[in-house]
Design brief:
Two copies of one chain form a homodimer. Chain A is an alpha/beta fold. In chain A, about 50% of the residues lie in helices and about 15% in strands. Chain A is built from 13 helices and eight strands. Chain A has a four-stranded parallel beta sheet with strand order 3-2-1-4, sandwiched between helices. In chain A, strand 5, helix 8 and strand 6 form a beta-alpha-beta unit. In chain A, helix 3 packs parallel to helix 4, helix 6 packs across helix 8 and helix 11 crosses helix 12. In chain A, about 50% of the residues are buried. At the A-B interface, helix 11 of A face helix 11 of B.
Chain lengths: ~270, ~270
């Protein structure tokens, strides 16, 4: 479905017992996780209940429906979404799958780094974006166990630098505002992935909006790969700190390509 | 450099004698062949003289210069370009490399189909776009020699259907106008590639402009690969004749991704 979330959603669903599968899964998301849970559940023939904000773009609702997700629309607040997801869990005995703060989701997200290290065992760094922290925590675990001298670093938008600040203060910080084009990275860390990130991530590098757009354009034009803005953040981070990465072998996880072609920043 | 022309240019240059290489190569092109010849020559440390129309986009001139090509700008007529290329051949003893009507270019272009058949030996069809005919002729030779029951088909814009008409009449037809978004396919066949196409190509399927744009968008959105309009033409052809290709295994050669991001059709 065009993003790494498919890995975490699939792994989390595969870990359910037969009885849990029978009752289905729930997630609340307006983005890639909604599609990932729908498609992963469809493949295993179990119901997927997706709580979406009523103002989510039609294209995203269509994609979720296309993958067999059963949508409930609610008011566009985190409280309304959480309450509705809780109600479905209660009434249908369905299992909630959190987009990033769930150990099986985290381990699933880590499989991209495992595969990358299998192909290139001599990487000095693996770079990923950080939003909710699932991909970063999963990649860091993978790098710790499968890498030789490899280290994990993350890129984060300056405009939503909660993870960077969390590393500084030692507690989960949130964003008061999150006005970044990297719309997948506006969320904050969770209590399951944060300790993993603290333990295994070398550095979180913050980048400006213009750097994100420029890195996105470079990947589009030179690699001919369609990536979404969030996905360009690690390349922007590497480029910003050229000196640190000079003569180093850096692997970047391209996290997703779900972008609205009618709203390109260039 | 983002298009299949790199294969043909490289093969043609590798076939030159040492003395020929010393004198360099010439091509006249406003598109991908100019970049391909420049880059292939640069890799072998030989001079590449590129004749370009003076009104070619600055981005294309920059790309050619970036790959080490030595540009001569001329009036934007085929006669002026041909005359200037001839002059360079005469004065510098350089070798002219035609973008599509040169047997070594044709054989180089065919390597993509060879690789595809190596990965998927059971293909029923390989589909490519047809413009000047180099990729089509090369692919058809490759399919004939390396395929099992595989056949070669081509997609062509209705608005520049010279190759389709050439197959009907048995002689090389030209386009009176060629108002198609698939700007790489406006050229006509040559006397070297046409007999190969006549002998080994099963069918040329013509498509409308809207079908090209829709196929292009589908590849962007679902495969997350940036392709240029010319590259979408074979998928448009397959889609147009769904019945013929139902339950068949069809390989499509994605021919290039050099597209101006500021001028997208969607």
């Amino acid at each position: 479905m065009g993003a790494f979330k498919m890995r975490g959603a699939t792994h989390a669903i595969l870990k359910l017992s037969e009885s849990e599968r029978h009752h289905g899964v729930v997630t609340h998301s307006s983005g890639n996780m909604a599609q990932a849970v729908s498609l992963a559940a469809q493949r295993l023939s179990i119901p997927a209940y997706i709580v979406m904000p009523e103002n989510a773009p039609q294209a995203k609702k269509d994609a979720v429906r296309g993958y067999g997700g059963i949508i409930t629309e609610v008011e566009s607040t985190i409280e309304a979404r959480q309450a509705e997801a809780d109600r479905i869990v209660r009434e249908r005995s369905a299992t909630l799958i959190h987009p990033s703060n769930d150990i099986n989701v985290i381990l699933g997200q880590g499989t991209a780094a495992v595969e990358l290290l299998r192909d290139y065992s001599d990487l000095d760094y693996i770079a990923v974006p950080v939003g909710g922290g699932g991909l970063l925590a999963g990649s860091a675990i993978a790098v710790h166990h499968h890498g030789e001298a490899c280290k994990t670093i993350a890129g984060e938008p300056m405009a939503a630098d909660d993870a960077y600040r969390s590393m500084q203060t030692g507690k989960i910080e949130k964003n008061e505002s999150a006005d970044t084009i990297a719309d997948g990275l506006r969320t904050h860390l969770g209590d399951i992935n944060f300790p993993i990130i603290q333990k295994y991530v070398e550095e979180i590098i913050r980048v400006e909006e213009a750097e994100i757009i420029s890195a996105m354009r470079l990947i589009w034009e030179r690699m001919k790969i369609i990536i979404e803005p969030s996905c360009a953040v690690p390349l922007a981070a590497i480029t910003r700190q050229r000196n640190k990465f000079e003569n180093k072998k850096v692997g970047i996880i391209l996290s997703g390509g779900n972008v609205d072609l009618a709203k390109l920043p260039f």
